[in-house]
Amino acid sequence: MARLADYFVLVAFGPHPRGSGEGQGQILQRFPEKDWEDNPFPQGIELFCQPSGWQLCPERNPPTFFVAVLTDINSERHYCACLTFWEPVDPTQEVVCTEDATEREEDADEGGQAWLSPTAPANPGQLFAPKTLVLVSRLDHAEVFRNSLGLIYAIHVEGLNVCLENVIGNLLTCTVPLAGGSQLDSVEEGARTISLGAGDRQVIQTPLVDSLPVSRCSVALLFRQLGITNVLSLFCAALTEHKVLFLSRSYQRLADACRGLLALLFPLRYSFTYVPILPAQLLEVLSTPTPFIIGVNAAFQAETQELLDVIVADLDGGTVTVPECVHIPSLPEPLQSQTHNVLSMVLDPELELADLAFPPPTTTASSLKMQDKELRAVFLRLFAQLLQGYRWCLHIVRIHPEPVIRFHKAAFLGQRGLVEDDFLMKVLEGMAFAGFVSERGVPYRPTDLFDELVAHEVARMRADENHPQRVLRHVQELAEQLYKNENPYPAVAMHKVQRPGEASHLRRTPRPFPRLDEGTIQWIVDQAAAKMQGAPPAVKAERKTTVPSGPPMTAILERCSGPHINSARRLEVVRNCISYVFEGKMLEAKKLLPAVLRALKGRAARRCLAQELHLHVQQNRAVLDHQQFDFVVRMMNCCLQDCTSLDEHGIAAALLPLVTAFCRKLSPGVTQFAYSCVQEHVVWSTPQFWEAMFYGDVQTHIRALYLEPSDDQVSPSQEVGEAQSQDDERSALDVASEQRRLWPTLSREKQQELVQKEESTVFSQAIHYANRMSYLLLPLDSSKSRLLRERAGLGDLESASNSLVTNSMAGSVAESYDTESGFEDAETCDVAGAVVRFINRFVDKVCTESGVTSDHLKGLHVMVPDIVQMHIETLEAVHRESKRLPPIQKPKLLRPRLLPGEECVLDGLRVYLLPDGREEGVGGSGGGPALLPAEGAVFLTTYRVIFTGMPTDPLVGEQVVVRSFPVATLTKEKRISVQTPVDQLLQDGLQLRSCTFQLLKMAFDEEVGSDSAELFRKQLHKLRYPPDIRGTFAFTLGTALTSGRPARAAKDKGPSLRALSRNLVKNAKKTIGRQYVTRKKYNPPGWEHRGQPSPEDQEDEISVSEELEPSTLTPSSALKPSDRMTMSSLVERACCRDYQRLGLGTLSSSLSRAKSEPFRISPVNRMYAICRSYPGLLIVPQSIQDNALQRVSRCYRQNRFPVVCWRSGRSKAVLLRSGGLHGKGVVGLFKAQNAPSPGQAQADSSSLEQEKYLQAVVSSMPRCADSSGRNTLSGFSSAHMGSHVPSPRARVTTLSNPMAASASRRTAPQGKWSSVRASGRSSGLGADVGSRLAGRDLLSTPQTNGAPPDPGFLRPQRAALYIIGDKAQLKGVRPDPLQQWELVPIEVFEARQVKASFKKLLKACVPGCPTVESSPASFLRSLEESEWLIQIHKLLQISVLVVELLDSGSSVLVSLEDGWDITTQVVSLVQLLSDPFYRTLEGFRLLVEKEWLSFGHRFSHRGAHTPAGQSSGFTPVFLQFLDCVHQVHLQFPMEFEFSQFYLKFLGYHHASRRFRTFLLDSDYERIELGLLYEEKGERKGQLACRSLWEYADRLSKKTPVFYNYTYAPEDTEVLRPYSNVSNLKVWDYYTEETLAEGPPYDWELAQGPPEPPEEERPDGGALQSRRRVVWPCYDSRPRVQPDAISRLLEELQRLETELGRPPERWKDTWDRVKAVQRLEGRPDGRGTPSSLLVSTVPHHRRSLGVYLQEGPVGSTLSLSLDSDQSSGSTTSSSRQAARRSTSTLYSQFQTAESENRSYEGTLYKKGAFMKPWKARWFVLDKTKHQLRYYDHRVDTECKGVIDLAEVEAVAPGTPTMGAPKTVDEKAFFDVKTTRRVYNFCAQDVPSAQQWVDRIQSCLSDA
After folding, report:
1. Residues 6+ apart with CB under 8 A from 1865
2. Is the omega angle on the peptide bond into residue 401 within 30 degrees of 0, that is, cis?
3. 471/1291 Cα distance (integer angstroms)
4. pLDDT: is 1548 or 162 the higher one?
């Protein structure tokens, strides 16, 4: 029995000691006055009676009741029931408190009910003070307390004739049964009826099981107040130890909500701070760091605002606020959604029927009490599902004297399949769960509803999952039991209690609450105590039983682990492989090994492996030979590599006994065990793993201890067998339960003996584990401290790799072993010391938890260092012997193919190439073989880093894997530490990332020493950043090849600058003098014409300021006529050639200026004096003097003043480029408001010059010539004086809506640009200017063509010149009258943003490690984050804007940043879009040479070519431009003569430093280095090309790889591409990969060995299939599977060669076919030509490529190879012109050495020994006296030379094996030289005879 109430207290209002207006509680009386021994009086009751503070009140409030909860130091809860009523204040108290009454009137009392009373108080000045009756109890019977206190109050108010002292005495002496009415004899005992002696009667029902919480209606109320989602959040928050705060104006509700939340947590107990009602004085408790559940009156909400980590539930408002910094993990799916659904069914049964057409009659909802139990039942089921099978993960470590139980968390998570689940992880780590294990883990104890549920009902719950009605039925059954527990005897529950009358509190009570007589009450209490002493002590009758364990656990959700679901077949493979290993069938095992290693990714296979190996250990087959040992170790390593540090699936645990069993004999007396080869795994350094293992083993031994049959029990063997089998089935918990049941019956001695036995069992296990841990923690080579450091418990290998880079070992190990003492150097003793510390900490922990005696513990501490030391000594011998083993045979290194001139710097270092984030190489979702990881070597050459090797997976076959990139493109190199794929050993590695989108992630083989790896890094670095640009491959290449020629002296780097500058002018003059026929379409002259200057050239006089001395001419001007064509590719003249084509002026001195031309070519910069980064010849307005240019240039950054770079053929508008403005300049003009001060004279003169300059540009435009007579200077000065006359001349344009279509334009898609709105307001810039252009609404719908509001727009023409400048520069610009240009400020990105964006793009396309979610979405997300496409979009957008402006006849000056990055991109794109010439191969080359090279884009700086640029990093401005061209190419595939491959080729080689073309930052630097002229001027026949253009030309002649077959240009086509990001595509240059041969852009390397033709296959029979498998990411698909046209051209060449004809150049063939096709197309008699892609097709349709066109006779599909000129002009002359234009690019070109060819033709020649016959083109050269041969007629590179001086005789020959079969025998002849005999075969007998004669005549001539 227990006391119903411990104390009765009367608390009243008292004045505050410090005299403040607040009162305080005073305890008037308490009974009993002295504390109970078992239960001292709780402190601070007076605070809790009035949680809002003690205050007087101006009127009498109704009485209030609530129950506060206090928790004492022993975590016992005391329930304080408080009934408060109000009494008038006597005058003495009133005096103290009146002054503050006014303030108090504003406040409500704690319930907020101060003003509810309907009647006014009798006396207006009267105040009322609170008084509280408190009942303190350890039992939670709130209703009984309410009734009892209510009765006492009623007796007082109603003045009943009952003695209060008796009632209170009875209350204090009342006893109730403890728990479990059903266990007592009668209903009366179970449901105790009490009376307090006032004619009342109450029934107290004790819960049947006291472990189940009593919730009454609190849970149901909580759900009603907050809703399902909110309550679930609070539930998860409380379980995961977050702080929860309830707010409400009602104290009763706060108490109920807290009680409800606790009831939901059952069977876990909340063990943190729990204060349902927190008094105002204690609010600072809320800032405690520990979790809590607290209730606070809503009046104090403001004080809770600044709590940052508290979840606030507002019960009155129904909201739950979770702060940003708090993350509440939710329940694991599917439990979350299931729970949610069941809760909604319980709370809202109508929901299921809401949609029914004929809803059933309304069902009665459960009563609130019943609903409360149903909600609790849902949560009880939830816990049963969450914790199902938890008893199978309990480790019983000790049984006697008290059970010690540990929970194996990792195993539980692993078996439930919830390893990654955040919620369960936190719950299992929490305090509540620790309490749950210690309370419920005990095997022998009373059980309750939860134990039954988790053991027996789980299968039912799983079966019911998809049947809502069955779930509901189960919930109701559980609810019934919970309800029965709270109300065991519903029939008896009758209360009869006197209540005070209605509004009794308003009556004037005759007197205040009386002072009670202490003596009377004390006497009643003493009497009861005496009576109790006589009675026998009440023992809580408990029915203990063995707790059922239930079925073994299953995963919550059967998660399929992707491709590794283990089928029986895979397990079969694992078993077979192991049996092969043990049977010694090593070849068979080797075949299966890769499949096994792949299968071991799955859990079942790993378990299977452990079981199989275990069987072999049991059969005493643990001693292996070397090969077997290697196999077993590899498989074990593979198993362990995926183990996390916790080993959730028990794999490491299963392998632990095996690694100490398998061994091999190294020499007599030295044995190596497997553990020395599997140490490299993080699991071995995790203390939790060792603890779980230890406890598991201890449990096994303790179980065995009690299962041993006792000695005295001798029974027949059969019985023993049966008993044994029964014993085997009993779990350790069953055994423990049995022992606990017997424990009280045992004698004292027996008990001691059992305790001792258990203790020594634990102790022996501790010694065993100290040994085991030393095995796995001490590295084989104890000097190699790296192993230890890796396992320093740092977990993730990535983090370990970071620690590898640092040299100090202290930090990394200290964390895991002993924070006080890390170890500084890597001596053996330190390794030993760290391991000793690790083991000692483990021993301390497990032994104290398992109750090992202190003597034993001390002994262990002494033993551990000895164990470690002995083990180290053993290992030294093993290490020594293992070094003597013969090494495993490694595959032979494959040597890479090198370019001519490329040399190896470092020979192959053995490495493994590991897979990175791109999954193609590993046979991922795209299928295909697992090419990576591959085993091979990395080579460092003067040009590239190359990996060549073979896949480690033998099933892939003999595929060679090559991955390489040019050294110059390396952007990031970092050291990593990775596991080698074969042995799973941790090795140092390197990750090299290249800006050509290659990544080499390599692990060095163990044979590669760290010094070799370091040397590799150093050499790589040296090659990447050569001290001087002459150290790059493009330079060293030539010197390596021409070592025969003495190197030129350094000072004579090239002609002097002065000589050059004169020469430059002269050369330019020559080019420009030539008059081309002006056609609509540019038609470059044939090569043969380009060699000799036209007649006019000779007469042309040049006047240059200095005289030209003949001696200063460059070597190039003295060239042979045949090489003169090379001069035409001189960059300067390339510029000039282009200027001439565009009609942009002539070169003349200032004296004889041709006035007719608006522009002229000025040599003012020929000495590079004005601007270092500009070319020597510039186009400037005719009217500007050279000396003025110097001053203009000062206004611009880098002196890059505006120069013309292109002129529109149609509108004659010009495009200019310049650097950004300095502060002065146009911006200065517009900003200056006052008259200039005298000090500004110089700056102003520059500004004036600049203004004149711009005016000159404006005047040079045809339509402005008439209006340019106005005196602009005076206009300018008046502006300076501040007369702002609004005038339509100068404006700042804000671009918002697209431009209106101009009438002159053809059918462009409408709405692309439909208006440029000019804002003529003088308020300066609108805020949205640049931002709009920056892409917000530039492509919005066009405005209707109504007149805009501003008058500036009404004039007939637009501004003559638009200046596109950076918004930041043009800030604060005022529009200035009388100027004719407009500023267009735009927002552009800077170079550093390009760099950052590219870095992210590189990471997105080539991630370093596999992403967590390898979905396409993750790639797209990282692509979006890089913002690369947004930058492309901006560039295209600005370019299209400029194209529009130029097309409408306005000139544009692009003046952004320094004028060499974005300016270059925009200007180049504009020209490409506007002028079809630049879309030809030659034109594009010209564009790049002119705008990028001559105008000084800083290739070396942006490409970080030198150590100086190293810090700035790689900024791919040029690559970005190429990407823009690629986007346009995709949208207009028929407008470009070059293919996409050409763009990729340029993108690769602009960074590769293979050619000199893209080196250095400007022409000035190139001349200074002697590059420009030397490269172009001297023809080096056999040398590798130094110029990229020359290389591309040669390649184009051989193969159409750069040519676009769908090229069918429209004449005047101005391209307007779509630029929205949605229209852009990711360039496949970034993502494609060819592992067969590395990047395909070095053409010599990319051509794999030719396949033998069908008929020559060795196995004979031409029927053999020519099919071959093409693998993505391995083969180059375009090459393996070429397009039809390339295929036909190749076929033609092959057939011609077979016929013995020299193959024709592909371009000639192609042009001929086009011509024939065009002629066929015309006379077909129909109205429409049969060709398809005619130019009548509207432009945006054309962009989509080929489509069908219906003709009169059915549908004909034919691919037109060139479009007609236009639908109107189909005359043959224009056709011829169009056809010639493309063919001339290739064909008119004289083959080299033409003048030295005496006789030539095709001959078959037999190769050297064992080589086949081949057709070659032979040239007999009388002059040089040699017979040369070439591959083809057009080749310039000679394949071989026969010196006729060595020829002895020419004689008829005989056919040998492999000779051409169709040829007559007489056509064979031999040429015998002093060295060897050459066998030849002509096409027929006469030609053979002719050859013999010719050779003979040469010999006789000599």
Report:
1. 1854, 1855
2. yes
3. 76
4. 1548
Q: Which residue has the tokens 């009548």?
A: 1736
Cα(221)–Cα(239) distance, rounded to whole angstroms? 20
pLDDT digits (tens, 9 = 90+) for 502-521: 766 676 665 788 888 888 88
Q: CA neighbours within 13 Å on the CB side: how many for 1294? A: 20
Give the CA angle between residues 1593, 1595, 1598 to the nearest 5°: 115
Q: Residue with structure tokens 């900490």?
A: 841
Residue 104: its H or E element: helix 101-106
Cis peptide before 933 (omega within 30 of 0): yes
Please enumerate in sequence order all residues whose Cβ is within 8 A of that of 1811, keeping only pairs 6 or more positions apart, or say none: none
Q: How far apart are CA 1447 and CA 728, in angstroms?
A: 94
Q: Name the token pair of 1190.
A: 């110097």
- Residue 814 pLDDT greater than 70, yes or no: no
Contact 408, 389 (CB under 8 A): no
Q: What is the pLDDT of residue 1316?
A: 33
Element (H, E) at 773: helix 748-777
In sequence order, what E strands does 540-614 have? 545-546
Q: Under a CB-based contact definition with an 8 Å cutoff, are residues 1801 and 1807 in contact?
A: no
Q: Cα dihedral angle (434, 436, 441, 447), rounded to 10 degrees? A: 170
Token pair for residue 1126? 């090379």
- What letter does residue 39 receive in the DSSP assignment? B
Q: Cα–Cα distance between 1495 and 1201 in angstroms, integer?
A: 12
Q: Dihedral of CA 1370/1376/1379/1382: which sign?
A: positive
Q: Where are the alpha helices (DSSP H) in 1761-1863?
A: 1772-1783
Could you identify the residue written with the tokens 């006779």? 1753
Residues 1103 and 1101: their CA atoms lie apart, in Å, by 6
* Tokens coding 1624: 């852009």
- CA-nearest of 1006, 1009, 904, 890 to 949 is 890
Identify the pLDDT of residue 1093. Answer: 37
Listed residue (1169, 1168, 1177, 1093) closest to 1132, CA to CA: 1177
Q: Which residue has the tokens 């001792």?
A: 756
Report the candidate in 238, 421, 233, 267 with the shortest Cα–Cα distance to residue 333.
Answer: 421
The C-alpha atoms of residue 1483 and residue 1477 are separated, in whole angstroms, by 5
Residue 1606: CA count within 13 A, CB half-sphere: 20
Distance CA 699, CA 397 (A): 5
- Computed over every residue of the chain, the mean pLDDT equals 76
Sign of CA dihedral 758, 760, 764, 766: positive
SS (H, E, C) 477-528: HHHHHHHHHHCCCHHHCCCECCCCCCCHHHCCCCCCCCCCCHHHHHHHHHHH
Kindly tell me the number of DSSP H helices and DSSP E strands found in the chain: 64, 47
Q: Which residues contact 858 (CB under 8 A, 6 or more apart)?
A: none
Q: Which whole number is the average pLDDT over 1419-1427?
A: 89
What percentage of the chain has pLDDT greater than the value 90? 26
DSSP codes of every residue in 1495-1506: TT--HHHHTT-S
Strand partners, 1879: 1870
Q: What is the pLDDT of residue 427?
A: 93
By CB atoms closer than 10 A (0-12, 13-18, 19+), residue 1493 is buried
CA gap 211, 206 in Å, rounded:
12
Q: Return d(Cα 1132, Cα 1127) in angstroms, integer.
A: 10
Residues present in the chain in total? 1902
| CA dist., res. 442 & res. 451, Å (int) | 12
How many Å apart are CA 879 and CA 886, to the nearest integer?
A: 14
Of the pLDDT bands very low, low, confident and very high (cuts 50, 70, 90), residue 259 is very high
What does the angle CA 627 – CA 630 – CA 635 come to, to the nearest 5 degrees?
130
Strands 1381-1386 and 1361-1366, by their bridges, are parallel
Q: Could you identify the residue written with the tokens 């799973």?
A: 984
